[in-house]
Predict the structure.
Amino acid sequence: MPDPDQLNDFLEALETAGSPAKNAALTEALGWDAPLYEEVKTALVAKGIVVRGRGRSDSVSLVGAEPQAPQPAPARTPRKGKTAGNGTANLGFEAKLWLTADKLRNNMDAAEYKHVVLGLIFLKYISDSFEEHRAKLLAGEGEYAGANPEDPDEYKAENVFWVPAEARWSHLQAHAREATIGKLVDDAMVAIERDNPRLKGVLPKDYARPGLDKQRLGELIDVIATIELTAASEGEGLSAKSHRSVDLLGRVYEYFLTRFASAEGKNGGQFYTPSCVVRCLVEMLEPYKGRIYDPCCGSGGMFVQSEKFVESHGGKLGDISIYGQESNATTRRLAVMNLALRGIEADFGPEHADSFRRDLHPELRADYVLANPPFNDSDWFRKDDDVRWQFGVPPKGNANFAWVQHFIHHLAPQGMAGFVLANGSMSSNQSGEGEIRRALIEADLVDCMVALPGQLFYSTQIPLCLWFLAKSKAADAQRGFRDRRGHTLFIDARKLGTLIDRVHRELLEDDLEKISGTYHRWRGANGAGSYDDVPGFCKSATTAEIAAHGHVLTPGRYVGAEEVEDDGEPFEVKMPRLVAELEAQFAESAKLEQAIQANLRGLGYGGRMGGNNARSLSRIDRRTKIEGFPTTMGSQAGIRLGKQRIDVFALAR
């Protein structure tokens, strides 16, 4: 098993070279022999940090890294004198921090370890932000002249949490290797909640429990202490530093949420929606300004991406108001911390609560609803005379259309909703679901349907889709929308996305642009360009067409087949040519079968093979030849006889 230094050396070389990087270049830069390089690469692939190149590519990439222009790999430098800090903002930094922190997990479950790590990351962030602002107050220059650095109001006025002396990171790190470190961290969390009512009941306070190895806790504190958050603020000189000018720790927090979701599998996915799916929802809805609501908000990813979208398009942090609700108390705490460390204000209600049993925002009418509700939930609370069931009472055995109607109930007259549901919601007719869907379509609420590729989620492998609803499809001059009444856009995106490992897929920038751009052109957004149907990908269908399909909303029914490019060869020429090639391959197959029979007899297996096995070998040979596989050394074609796999071409040689 490679040691941590070797893993970090590999990541540093890959980080500098840029993703994807050629294996040969990295091997040379590291100065390793091929077996060591492969061993380290395999270990990082198994941990989900690195992904091999697709197909026969001889490259390697960091998971989730944006493709970069090829750079020469760095020459390996001696480890002596190497510093632990790293202020870079690329993904390799987060990956290395995860690798080190995860090493300290020992036998602790990811679900448990998650709160240990994320609580400390949050504590580090607010402590660093506090110390940064405290330095300005101590300097007493400009607007801070005469300010009192020990006055909590000076910090709250700048949206900085007040951190008492016993909770500051410098104090905790100084005692990190002491046996009492667990109690010190718990006391720090209690003190922060005491002095910051916004965080009351949010922070984890079980670091002193006997089951948590205090030596490893101290090591983890030292690891997190290596995060250097300072970076030049935009518009300031290079010497000007600000912990909050770039969201480095926010990125670390988000990256750790992703990695924990992967480690936890199904349970992790219950609180984390993959960022590419959230980005797709946000990019399509474009929530520039107004009230955003998520009644099953998990760890708050929808809100974070919404704020990022607003800021990236020149808006202000306060242009949107955020309302959320979460039924799981632990996950709700994650959401509060996730938004608090980014300085985002949100109303999550007074406590955790089930949106069906107790709606914490009953009067809210949101401009945008963004959500990823539990799929096909059969264990939910239903009251038959609920005012939310405007389009039919949803079945007790599946909450999908309960969520849909809950979203609609909370939309403003011009509001729009985008959310994730299982594919069954588009076509199911069980227990009255088809009638509810028909009522939604006839009310002209369904604006767009997107079929997603599989393997995007950590929590499930079932196929999923995106729904987009609009309370009004009439022309909107302010937003530039055309009149879409009586029409619905269908997008089949199942062929998009890139595998980042054997079981997980991501929608990349080009995929997101293709999906969201199509929607923007169709609804007539300002400057989006003109829309055209694309066979196999998108189709604008009328309500009458949807009714003709039994009110089924599966995009594949409407977009049709993808156009196949004509190679220009007439059929009457192509068919005889292909038949001649096939006959030649059949003849070659017969020769190969005879060679195999002869070699089997030479191995002591006299006589002819049974008809089924002989036909199987012949069929395999024909298939490999027709598909273009070489009949040379190294070919992997073979047949399994009982428990024994036989290499077909090895027998023929």
In short: The first strand starts at residue 21 and ends at 22.
